[in-house]
Amino acid sequence: MALEKDFELLDEYLRNKLDATDKAAFEQKLQADADLQREYKLQQKIAEGLRKARTAELKNMLNNIPVSSVHGSEISIGVKTLISLTVAGLVATGIYLYLDKDETETSAQQITKTETPAEVPAETETEPAPTNEAEPDANVSSPASSAPSSTETPQPEKPKQQPVVTEQPAAKESASVTKPVIAPKQKDSVSKPEIHVFEPGEETESTRAVDDKTATESTPKANKTTLTVKTDANNKKYNFHYQFKNGELYLFGPFDKKLIEIMEFFSDNKHTVFLFHENKYYLLNEASEKVKPLTAITDQTLIKKLKEHRSGN
Amino acid sequence: MDEKEIFERISKGDEKALEFLYKKYYRMMTKLVITNSGTEEEARDIYQDALIVFWQKATSGNLVMTSKISTYIYSICQNLWRKELDRKKRLSNEEKDSAVSLDTETAERDRIILKCIEQLGETCKKVLMYYYFEEMSMQEIADKLGFANTDTAKTKKYKCKMKLDELVKAQYSEHDFLD
């Protein structure tokens, strides 16, 4: 028969509070005593029930805490958006453009400044897998080949562009601001997986999507691409500059306040990137990794063409 | 609240600090899931579970922080989401026929226990939950629930546990579950 003392020990055992010696002694006793064993099983169930009940209580408490919606206020680290593409057969230059139009994705990737940007990097330091676009670089080949084919076939003649939107931290405004810029004409299925930021496991589809992005980043010939765009409004030295570094585009200046749009143009071997910001277009030269000032394009013919693509496609 | 203060308060079972932490990292943590094929609902669920794991480890004294709190929680979120994706994948591979033949008897036993817990008074529930989930010491339970001393907490815990045991055993025997 199990004694009261045994029950006390049992309790401590259930909470894993016994030291190694007591634990071993108790386990031995447990083996030899059928009553105690039965009681142990029941007590284990009860303790488990109490833990479940407490978990449910805590979850309920957390559920009642008001939090702002993620979609409204997240900006993205990279504000990287990928768009499906249409080819600009009509364009005299014969360039192909790609455009991603899923507005929800774009907004999902937005993060606010209030998000204490310093913390995300901290995560990435300690965790090997988190948020990094750089992570998936290792396996670039397979996904790159699969994704493009699907988008390519339907409309190989239309231009595509890649709008990227950043906005103010104020969460509520995001939806309204984002909408006008990204005309959602494309199917979710094409673009959805492409917002993945890090790779949780090789087996998921998302992994492929990540790979896809990085792959196309480094090989502009591919029909799909995405650039990781990061904005920095607080840089003292650079207040209206840009820089391509490690495949990422950094924009220095007040880009968190106004919408920006990145337009990527692909021709056979060329990859050209333009920034649209406050009704002006800027050519972004990828040739070097230096920080360069942003100078608005003045060539009216070019502006006209860019305008056509922005509005027409 | 700085990191140290948050951690100290959480270790003592301060739910306000948990609430603060929840809001503080909500966007950061949910984004992890949302940007990896998850819905916002799934993201919230994973984040909450991760936070509760952190809470349990902190209150039970089983956690020594060597990194930032956010880093720690982030890694739990990652693990949980990875598991969830695996689970989903398995589920879709297995098809419905082989999926989860639910052990109804086990489920019924669990349900009975939860029902019995519900029948306890609020203080009893708290004492037992703090003891088994938060794994607080008697001193901590006494502090938290305003008992005069640890002896009071001990007695209370003992009585509440007896009560719960009785309830469960009565129900189990009714269902012929006592083996």
UniProtKB/TrEMBL annotation, chain B:
Superkingdom of the source?
Bacteria
Which keywords does the record carry?
Sigma factor, Transcription, Transcription regulation
Q: Which residues form the RNA polymerase sigma factor 70 region 4 type domain?
A: 111-146
What the entry lists under Pfam families is as follows: Sigma70_r2, Sigma70_r4_2
Instruction: Return the InterPro entries for the record.
Output: RNA_pol_sigma-70-like (IPR039425), RNA_pol_sigma-70_dom (IPR014284), RNA_pol_sigma70_r2 (IPR007627), RNA_pol_sigma70_r4_t2 (IPR013249), RNA_pol_sigma_r2 (IPR013325), RNA_pol_sigma_r3/r4-like (IPR013324), WH-like_DNA-bd_sf (IPR036388)
Q: Which PANTHER family does the UniProt entry name for this protein?
A: RNA POLYMERASE ECF-TYPE SIGMA FACTO (PTHR43133), RNA POLYMERASE SIGMA-70 FACTOR ECF SUBFAMILY (PTHR43133:SF46)
Family statement:
Belongs to the sigma-70 factor family. ECF subfamily.
From the Swiss-Prot or TrEMBL record, give the protein name.
RNA polymerase sigma factor
